[in-house]
Specification:
single chain, Immunoglobulin-like, three-stranded antiparallel sheet, 2 helices, rod-shaped
């Protein structure tokens, strides 16, 4: 008797499994679950690819910006700016500064000029003075190239005192600072 019961339990289980399989195959709801799973999976993959592309493009933009900044910083480090002659006219109140680019970086421009007295008290700031050719006084529009000389003029306000020592600070277009000094006649 126990053997027959085991067979009948197994036979009943197989019969139940067959019925459930047939019901699952014929059930339209099972197909919609599979399709919805595929659709959701495709959506997740599409979003993942979109996020991956976005992250790649942001990284590419950051790398481009970084390399551009590093190139500009390397050019700034190569800047060398020399004061050849500084002259102040008490009569016309004009400060003329002759300069030379003796570095390895071309297109040297001047962003700001600061003047200080002998005690380092701030006297004035002059933005973007016009660079000119020393021999022809022609405008130098794109800055001094390597080995070139030029000059600029500013009108100090207040006027500088005669027989006094002054400091001048030049900030280049790339942010480098160069200091010089002069005395008025």
């Amino acid at each position: 008797m126990p053997k027959r019961r085991k067979k009948s339990i197994i036979a009943q289980s197989l019969s139940v499994a067959e019925r459930q399989t047939k019901r699952l195959i014929l059930n339209k709801k099972a197909v919609s679950v599979v399709i919805s799973t595929i659709v959701v999976t495709a959506g997740v993959l599409a979003m993942g690819i979109g996020v991956l592309y976005w992250a790649y493009s942001m990284g590419d933009i950051a790398a481009h910006s970084y390399s551009k900044n590093e190139a500009a910083n390397a050019k700034a480090v190569q800047e060398r700016f020399g004061f050849e002659f500084i002259d102040y006219s008490n009569i016309s109140n004009v400060l003329t500064v002759n300069v030379m680019n003796w570095g390895d970086s071309g297109n040297l421009t001047i962003a700001n000029v600061y003047i200080y007295d002998s005690t380092h008290q701030y006297l004035g700031n002059y933005s973007r003075p016009v660079l000119r050719n020393i021999t022809t006084s022609a405008l130098i529009p794109f800055g001094l190239n390597v080995g070139n000389e030029g000059y600029f003029q500013v009108t100090p306000n207040p006027a500088l005192s005669a027989g006094t020592f002054y400091y001048i600070r030049i900030i280049t277009g790339r942010g480098r600072t160069f200091d010089g000094s002069f005395a008025t006649a």
